Predict the structure.
Amino acid sequence: MTNTRIPPARAERPAVRAAPAPQGPSARDRGTRLLATLFLTPTIVGIVIFTVVPIVGSVILSLFHWNVIDSPSYAGLSNYGEVFGDETVLVSFRNTLVFMVFAVALQLLVALALALTINGRMPVWLRSVFRSAFFFPLVLSAASISVVMKYLFNQDFGVINWALGFVGIAPVPWLTSENAAMATVVLVYVWQQFGFSFLLFVGGLNNIPKEIHEAAALDGATGLRKHLTVTLPLLSPTLLVASVVGIINALQVFEQPYVLTNGGPGDSTRTVVMVIYETAFEQLRFGEASAVGVLLFVLIMAVTALQFRLSRRFVHYQ
Amino acid sequence: MTDSHLTRRALLRYGAYGAGAAALAGTAASWDRLTGADIPGRDDGSLVVATLGPAYGPEAIRTLREGFAELHPDIKLRINAVQAVDWSDFFAKILTQVAAGTAPDLVYVATEGVQLFAQRLGVALDKWVKRDAAELKEYFTDVHPSLVESMMYEGSLYQLPVEFNAADMYFNRQVLRRAGADFPPADWTRDDFTALLRDMKRSGGSRFTPYFWTNRLWGGVVPWLFANDTNLLAESKAPGGDWLWNGFYPTAQRKGRGGGFRWTTPQASHDRVEEVYDYLASLIQDGLCTRPEGGNGQNLIGVFSTGRVGVTPAGGFWAGGLHLAGMERDGFDVQYFPRWRTQRMQYGAAGYALLRTSTMQDEAWEFIKYAARKDTLERLFATNQTTPARRSLLTAGRYAKTGPAHWPVFYDTLDRFPDTGPIPAPPQVAEVEQVLLKHTGTALASARSVRPALRRMQGDLEKAMERDV
């Protein structure tokens, strides 16, 4: 005979409490909101003036022909037609996406590997030295770094090829070959940028409770397996932030390719922001440049939205 | 039921916040704030002159200002040295000022921008030149007509040239000695040049590149195009300009002159252009020449002065540049660009352009005249950072300290080769230059890439030239 539990009679069930009648915010809540609004106002004003207004301005300007000298004339969507028919623009979008994929992946890999290494058994003072050293390039001007790197990577007179010559490697056309130039730009960019992700990862690793690692160790997880099954899932929120910021920055890359290769050889390292600059300030076609800018804005928004969408599946919060 | 009324304490607290905020706002409003009007010279009746920053150091600016103040104490002058990496960057910044409604009265403009400014922003100087013809006679006598012609657009004169630089060929003397080669004669040919590079290469070792050049409009591939009797764009002369030639130049010098250059149909796919690219590609394949990099040649001084490069195209500006880099006057020398089909040379010149937006055009004209005076240029170009447009300034004394020994080459380039002309710079110059640099890089990747790259260059140039600036 099975022992089935008989549900209590309806009358015996505890009565469901009626939801309280909606009430307005308390005086304290209102005060807090007012105070918050007061503190946020300068930031909001700043964002409106320096972000929203230029975005709206660019969208409006993308509908006009304007060469700075004459008055703008309405062009409708013809600037967008010009942009989509311009091979240089399309190539620049392709270059930028390729650059983004490689630069962000390499940046995150390098930063994560170094963060894991430094977070291991290492004296505190040495950790500080490495932290400072890895972060240092980030505070330097990208243009200055690129000028120096241009000398280092020079095919005929650069220090790098000079050093490679000692081990019998022929001079590499770092900046003058279509195949190598993009890789060189990625390398220079990653060298400068990885410090930001590195610091995020160091912070994220420090936030993972030791007990979890100890429990994993008791279960027999060691080395790479421990990192794959414990560290990475717990670091996923940090990875999300690092990748979102990294992708947004990479899609807007300008200084490194501009100084190192000026977009060449051919168009092999020409990026979208370079095209915007050249179209606007060198060729005086501000409408078309704005149209390219609007398209880049849409691309960045779409990629970021996709990242947050995917994050629901891959990001784990403790 | 909640009490929706504010307590007295809360009311007092928010009252205090409000009072505090109002006090802060009041204080901020009462502070003296910086505005556009606080920029020295802004809207104070000054004549504003924009110069390319790196070309004019503080000393030069002081020289200009003080000299002008002596002559015209009634005209306030402000010199705005705009920092830029090259001419196109400089023009971009000037145009930004124009867009912002803060355009200068005068802009220092090189050949790269002469037609752009003349067509869209500049004021022709004809009426003032005619008015002050007697005063200017001495200036025109001292300045080669080719330089003046390069500052004309559709029959009118827009600038008085004050400096220029032709693309001559510089040699590192130490490298020549090492190769056992003689200094080439003035009428040397492209084949002599190639043979010299081979001699240099043999004696130079693996870390040495005989010929270095920068991929840019001035001094890049264009001098080779000129030497092979061709050009990137079809070149002709605009009609007009007789008022100037007949007024200031003798018959022999005004022969063949017109109202300025016209650069029209692209001809990148012409056989002679292809020949030039084939030749340069072959130099690269043979290790006699570097792959050209973009830039302004800044990194070249170091490698040339230390003997890692033997030959490179440069102008009179390098006499001062190499001296500053520590080269002795006999460490380097200069010769004309080698002959191919012709020995036509290319140059770029510069002078002050008067903007239409200026409300001080008569005062601006006085500055233009002052800036072209012999004593002004003597002080301004004392360090040989360029070639003065005035022939009389090129003396043995000027180059005694810096070198090179063959300094007369700088100005004789114009006299010896009368067809020597400016780099092709139509109003669409920015896009033309970008197309040239882009496809030159691709064309020289290998011998096989020349033709397809030039075909693409031709297509892009056609599109660029169709566009109205």
Notes: The interface with chain B takes residues 23-24, 26-27, 31, 34-35, 38, 67-69, 150-151, 154-157, 162, 165, 173, 175-178, 261-267, 278, 281-285 of chain A (CB under 8 Å). Strands of chain A lie at 64-65, 73-74. The radius of gyration of chain A is 27 Å. The CA atoms of residues 5 and 311 of chain A lie 43 Å apart.
